[in-house]
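Regression test attached.
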Amino acid sequence: MTTVKDSADTLGPDENTVDDLSSADTVDTPERPAAPPPVRRRTSATTPQDRWVALGCAVSATLLTWFVMHELLTSPGWLADLVVAYLLYLAMLYLVTRDRLGHLAATDRLVSAVVVSGAAGLLVPLLFLLGYIVTKGLPSLRLAFFTHDMSSVAPTDPATATGGLHAIVGTLEQTALALVFVVPLGVLTAVFLNETRSRFRRPVRIFVDAMSGLPSVVAGLFVYAALILPPVQSGFSGFMATLALTMIMLPTVTRTVDVVLRLVPDGLREASLALGASRARTVWSVVLPTARTGVSTAIILGIARVVGETAPLLFTSFGSLSMNYNPFGDPQESLPRFVYRYIKEPLASAQERGYIGALVLILLIFALFALTRLIGRQRWSSRRTKPRSDR
Amino acid sequence: MLGILASVTVTTPAPDASPPEPLAIADVPSRADRAFRRVTTGAGLSVLGLLVVIGFFLVYRSVPAFRISGFGFFSTIQFDAASGQLGVLGLIYGTIVVALIAVAFAVPLSILAALFISDYASGRMRGFLTGLVDLLAAIPSLLYGLWGFSFLRPYITPLSEWMTSNLGWFPLFATKPGAVLFNSMFVAGLVVSLMVIPITTSVIREVFTQTPAGEKEAALALGSTRWGMVRTVVLPFGRGGIVGGSMLGLGRALGETIAVSLLLPQVPVVTSHLLEFGGATISGFIANNAGMSGIGLNGLMAAGLVLFVFTLATNFTASVIISRSRSGVGVDA
């Protein structure tokens, strides 16, 4: 634990103290004026001086890097420059802050800088990823992508002629069918885990956890070997993909709904039961309505989980170039399958087709995500207190 | 509550009337309750049954492969269905190496990002970043794989060259002279780490934000800096979450398919030269051999079973570690 004595370093310079270097001393000095003016302490972590120090360190680190790496040595690349400049910046920041405020504050600033750059390291890949897919996909995206399929498009046609309607229809049908299985089963299982006192709850919870570890490719392989190969021999179809997707989606939805139901206050349940409602009535009229937004979020997260799932489709829906509205017979295309098909081809125009599909897929995920945010925001506005009618 | 109470007092009959007949308290469930119990139990048991069927079927279909190769299944590197030589050692090795590289890159970055979200960012920034991490976790691995395959790969090759020429004394970075350095397990591990980061970050952040505010404030009130507070309160509290989140990330990295199938040549090999062309993982190998039939398919099933057991073991260890730790109560990861 840090001792009280250290606090002199850590309180930080006051906004109003102009002579910043001695502020650490002022805190501890016993001979203060009898009635100090009511100074409002700023609790914010940084002061203008701190920002100037950070800026100065950054500038001098950049210049020093440029001098050393380009004037004295030959730089191996921009990545090396970046690493050297970053390390120099950290060292300078530490030394300057230690000179100003002591080693405790210096360590604190150093760690803050590292943490901030770590968070930036999380943000940068996403922005790169988004920018890359948009810049690659957008120039060739035409309205025709949403109106026709690939059966009339020759492999040598330009990427602007790409049609993806068959893939979009396949994705929508397979996901919707998976929802038909997953939503009732997942919600009921979560209710079973939370609202009953059955002795099977523990094994079921363990098995749901285990199932969420099922690799998606194994789910596809299972459907392929169990239903598509000879003993049953039902052939590739969108429905087979639905079955594989169900296995992947079910544990996600069940676990999320389980967490959401756990958040429903026990007082509500007890009130309902005390008023004489049965357990079924309590779940139907109290627990599920209270958790409604959470349940819909769970379902949308489940959709987002499977809508880009590619590996099981290779074994189940197989994919095709032409439109197939019937998910129960014949191979069916879907967006991830579409992307995977074209991205593996060496031809540049084929790869561009893949990027268009990826762009549409990412837009779909974004739309789903915006939907969860929207539902989450409406949490309190829709629950209005009913006017009392018994008077 | 008060309203109900008030209305009850209003409608109470005159005090001289005889007290109302006490209702019999019965523990016998009503018919609706019994139906409810049956339906929910049925749903729960059907999930249980589904997994049992999957597991049983995987075992059943892998038996021929185990029978042909015996214990050699786990000690043979090559997987060649045409010659009847089935082995999974090279695949297991590649799977574990790629997953470990991914986790080694992902975990430090995740800890930093989680710390930033929980203790450094301001209120609005925190909400934005939390949503961003969830969004990152929802982006399909196909898109990460696509990006790593076509954008990132050319940039990593010079890095590999630099590493092998300057750090080649370290056995893992050594390469044979003149070896090709693209499509290596190192590249695959880096791309997989991108997919793992959102998941580990979100678990670790969840644990960090549950640090009792009182303890943090106590540390600050005793005069510690923010780093002192993080070091003495947040990190010890979140240790279980860090380990558990890393294990969950490892589980995800083990099962990662599409990126690996795009990046690796999928030729099973056991080598310490991680920067060189080559390598295969179980899931990528299965995806690249989708059309296999006969004994080869049995071999793939057996490999899938091995992968399933691996992910199961890591996920269970993760959840045990998380729930045993002080911070893990109520965290569902």
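Expected vs. actual: identical. DSSP finds 15 helices and no strands in chain A.
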